[in-house]
Amino acid sequence: MRKVLLVFLLLILGLCAASPYFIGYQIKKSLYEVAAGFSQDNKNFIVAIQDYQGGWLSSDATIEIRFQVPAAMSSSTPGAELKTVTETIHSHILHGPLVQEPLSGRFILALAIIQSKAFISGFDYTSSASDHSVTDMTTWVDFKNHWHSQYTQPSLAFTLGQVAQIHWQTATGSFDFTLNNNQLAAYRFNIASKEMVVGLPSSTTLSEVNMDALQYENEFSKTSTGIWAGTAKMTLPILTIKKKDQTQITLQDSQFENTISNPNTNFYDFALHIAVKNIQTAAAVLPSLGPVQFNFSANHLNLAGVQALGDFFKAMHHQPLTDEERKTYFSLLPKLLTTTTLLNENLDAATPDGKLLNEAHFSWQSTPVLPTNPQEMVQNANTVITLRVATALVDKLIAAHDGPATTTTPAATTSAANTATTATTPASPGTSATNSTPANAATPDTTTTATTPTPPQTEQQAPPTFKSTLDAWLEKGYVVKEGNDYVVLLKRENGVTTINGKTPTP
Asked: What is the three-class DSSP state of 21?
């Protein structure tokens, strides 16, 4: 009996001793397969394990992520159209099943704990980290193959060649993902940054974009069709856009959210929501807006068309489109549509002078044949567009564009029509200055008269103003006044377009 217990104990100890090595092998296999899968799904990003030094209790890996950017963004002198940027990640892997947390020092049960630091080559940048790293990350891997990472980023300053300079204050966040058969099945990411300033070249209209306390998070999972479905959100308390140190636009309390879903094997849905509490501008005519709400949704897009368009963009490698690629792109757009596709747009903005409302709906439900080119997409769409704008806002915008009212004046006139320029000899004493010689006098007429012909009077036609255009549309009924609003309702159905129920004429 004692021998059996001894053998059993030795077997347990052997398994415990060997388990870190086998766990290390499993982690290595997962890393290689995830890298290969990521590179396959993202043609513009190549993930490769450059070096892996396996051990019993720990291992070390060097991972490279390579991607291409326009040469103007690279730190090197632009020559080629594209330049490769490399992010190198150095990871130290502690094998489970019993590992010590680097921060707390306590031992926990886990497959592994991975400590990583990332460095970038291909961009000119400075880092507040003493080792010049751009990210410091700790990853916990549990027994369900769920990977949870927490990371910090030091203050960074990037010079993107001729494009921009980015100053990024310290940021923290997390990145979680789950593997299924060593393939990425789901992920979640979030980041919170104190401040980011983007400086633009002096040749551009704007000179600086400043974002305070940015927060971003997303959560996506891979569906059975291969589509990543989920939601991404971003909040931005302050966004300031400047031009030569003068603030042009300030956005307060902005929220952005987009959702992607895959309701079945045939359809793809997309939704975008933007909300801004207040917008301040440098424009005197419209100094403020807010709150502003914008929504856009595309329901029942053709899943196969979405995937084909995605594959097209993956193969572009950031290069300008050739004529042939442009033709391919436009030929792919109609393939996004189905007979149940519905596009919806809604804008609701408040101004000091009243509301600005816009709604639009597009569908192809009654179309006998689906479009084959972008022109047919527009012509064959069943369209309903509603625009409602406060009259006070329209009047202010018109006054700002047209300027003070002017009257039409003749282009050329004489100071006195049908008058002559007269040169008269001096009058004799005792005679009138206007009549140099009495009518009955016998003295010779010494007055000479020269007459300049009057040119024909012409008028210069003033170009149409916004006010005159609005008046004409009101008269035709293309714009109607409802209470304190101007309203336009445009409909297109079965190829027939109407504006407020009237057929437009040239």
From this structure: helix
